[in-house]
From TrEMBL:
Top-rank taxon, per record: Bacteria
Pfam hit, one: DUF1905
Organism of derivation: Asticcacaulis biprosthecium C19
Gene3D superfamilies to which the protein is assigned, alphabetical: AF2212/PG0164-like (2.40.30.100)
Name of the molecule in the record: DUF1905 domain-containing protein
Amino acid sequence: MSYSFSGKLWRWKGEAPASWVFVTLPGDIAFEIKCQIADRRAWGSVAVNARIGATTWNTSLFPEKASGSYLLPIKAAVRKAENLHDGDDTIVELTVKG
C-alpha cells in the first residue's frame, strides 16, 4: 500500500527536554491503513518506508488518540536534508511494509 499526501510539520513538546517533529496523516489514509493492517508492532505502530523530496527512510507510524490518526516522525536528518522547519507544508510518500 502506497500513499501520497500533503502535511504540515509540527513539534510535540512533552515533559522531556527532547522534542519530536511529526506530520499527522489525513484521516482517510489513516482509516484505510487501520482497516488493512492486522499485524501492528509495539504500541500499535505500523512499519513504513517514507519519502520527502529526495530523502527516503524507514520508520513507523504511531497512533494518536486525540486525532484518531497516525503520526509520522520526521527525523532531524530528513528536515535538514530537505530544508524543512516547524510549520512547513510538505509532500509525503509512504509505503506500508508487510
